[in-house]
Design brief:
InterPro entries: P-loop_NTPase, Pif1-like_2B_dom
Number of strands: 6
GO molecular function, one term: helicase activity
Structural class: alpha+beta
Largest sheet: 2 strands, antiparallel
Organism: Heracleum sosnowskyi
Protein name: ATP-dependent DNA helicase
Radius of gyration: 21 Å
Helix content: 25-40%
Keywords: ATP-binding, Helicase, Hydrolase, Nucleotide-binding
Order of helices and strands: EEHEEHHHEHHEH
Number of helices: 7
Amino acid sequence: MCVEANVPAVTIDGKVMPFKDWVLAIGNGVAPTYALDDDIEPTWIKIPKEMQVTYSGEPVKAIADEIYGGLHDNIGNIEYLRDRAILTPLNANVDKINREVLERLPGNSKLYKSCDTLCKSSSTHGADEVLYPSDYLNTLKFSGMPNHELEIKEGAPIMLLRNINPKKVC
């Protein structure tokens, strides 16, 4: 991970560390953890106060407000978009955040769908149509694979992640 902007350091249990080191420690599974009341193992990570978003109401809206609050004033400003990202470990959260940010952009969205036809040369073609109907296949969501539908607007930030190798990134 390369952090090029001045991101403030974080303080964890009285220890100050650069933000990028903290995120890498979480990703590598070496960040300090603690246990809640009845937990046997410490599996919780303490998030510093300066990194928390306070909200009352909808958390996804609060995160989008915090990161993309000035989006309307910065449409087309590549630096503004490049310097912002929201990290989340779950694809379901990514979908919610994408919808929230997409709604903030002006204009009409366009929906792109994947191709969902079976190869006619397959010897089990008839069985595949019964076992794996396209309606079912279109609902599947996999990490590292795009969803069946992609909704975008002109000017929407799109991040393409490929071949991420932490040892060779920086």
